[in-house]
């Protein structure tokens, strides 16, 4: 997420000004806690199991390339790159105020619009 301290840039964008980053780090930022549809590979499911599992987005894999997604119903953690994001919907109730950073939803929408204008 962009920060006021960094003039509404992300940490990756600020670091990129000083150091040339490899292309694998250019993963677009996603909203934590949003709904994610994880594709279950053929060898991980049976004939009658669903192809897609609805999960919550937790973050990025630390030692592997992929997104960390958690399915609270089966209590499974998936680390995969084959996912579809639904960033407009939160898995749990939408937080009205972020306790850690003191941001409300309106400020978050302004930052997302700012990021989209920069990326265009």
Characterise this structure.
The chain has a domain at 24-91. It has a 5-stranded antiparallel β-sheet with strand order 4-3-2-1-5, with no helix packed on it. The protein starts with 10 loop residues before the first helix and ends with a helix. The model has no long low-confidence stretch (mean pLDDT 77). The protein is elongated, with a radius of gyration of 16 Å. It is built from 2 helices and 5 strands, in the order αβββββα. With 120 residues, the chain is α+β, with helices and mostly antiparallel strands.
Q: Into which percentage range does the β-strand content fall? A: 25-35%
* Rounded Rg: 16 Å
Nearest-integer average pLDDT: 77
**Tally of strands:** 5
Shape: elongated
Main beta sheet: strand number and arrangement? 5 strands, antiparallel
Q: What is the terminal-to-terminal distance?
A: 18 Å
Biggest sheet, strands in spatial order?
Answer: 4-3-2-1-5
Low-confidence stretches: none
Please, how many helices?
2
Order of H and E elements:
HEEEEEH
Helical content class: 10-25%
**Class from secondary-structure proportions:** alpha+beta
């Amino acid at each position: 997420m962009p920060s006021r301290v960094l003039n509404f840039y992300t940490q990756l964008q600020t670091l990129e000004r000083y150091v040339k980053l490899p292309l694998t780090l250019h993963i677009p930022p996603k909203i934590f806690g949003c709904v994610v549809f994880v594709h279950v590979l053929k060898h991980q499911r049976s004939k009658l199991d669903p192809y897609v599992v609805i999960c919550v987005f937790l973050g990025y894999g630390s030692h592997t390339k992929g997104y960390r997604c958690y399915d609270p119903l089966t209590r499974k953690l998936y680390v995969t790159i084959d996912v579809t994001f639904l960033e407009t919907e939160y898995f749990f109730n939408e937080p009205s105020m972020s306790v850690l950073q003191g941001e409300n939803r309106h400020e978050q929408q302004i930052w997302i619009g700012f990021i989209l204008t920069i990326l265009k």
